[in-house]
Design a protein that fits this description.
39% helix; single chain; disordered C terminus; alpha+beta; 4-stranded antiparallel β-sheet
């Protein structure tokens, strides 16, 4: 017996099944949890060490090697990758799934401080950051005008558009303007 003949012989049963499937779909969609910025569980930290004037070979020898050696002792570390470019050393730390990233970040900062004792004078503290879906911009706004100058467009973007635009629980990436008489401290 094929589906067409069944549908022609029992149209009310078929209509009841279609409505039931649609109702179950609507109920499942309504009860499904939603999150605008879900935790993707990517256990990765990045360490960016600037040092102006060093070529990639010097960055590798004087800076990045010390970090790589010390980072191997961080709890939960799975893999360490590094890349040295002109004036910057980038180290990617991958952790095992399920690693407490707050603890891993705290340990990384501790090992960064320890490794800096072996580095050349004038080495500034590196940037230790967790790069995940929550740390990238949600979108880009582009402003154009045939009558306004670039400075007027920047003022409009900074003081009229950006303040009401933060998503619930998150701030926008640009620093908040201060000194506007709002009582905020810089």
């Amino acid at each position: 017996m094929n589906l067409v003949s069944l549908a022609l012989r029992r149209p009310i049963s078929l209509l009841t099944m279609i409505v039931a499937v649609a109702l179950i779909g609507v109920l499942a969609l309504d009860r499904m949890s939603r999150d605008i910025f879900p935790d993707l569980g990517v256990p990765v930290l990045y360490v960016a060490q600037p040092y102006g004037g060093m070529d990639p070979a010097q960055m590798e020898g004087f800076i990045v090697n010390y970090y790589e050696y010390h980072f191997l002792y961080i709890t939960g570390i799975e893999h360490v990758e590094s890349r040295s470019i002109q004036g910057v050393g980038l180290i990617k730390l991958e952790f095992h799934p399920g690693t407490d990233m707050a603890q891993a970040t705290a340990e990384t900062v501790g090992y960064v401080d320890r490794a800096r004792a072996f580095m050349p004078a004038g080495t500034v503290p590196p940037f230790v950051m967790r790069f995940d879906a929550g740390s990238v911009p949600d979108g880009d706004l582009v402003f154009t005008s045939k009558t306004k100058t670039v400075a007027e467009l920047q003022d409009a973007a900074l003081f009229k558009v950006r303040p009401p635009s933060p998503v619930q629980g998150r701030e926008s990436c640009a620093p908040r303007p201060c000194g506007s008489g709002s009582g905020e401290q810089c």
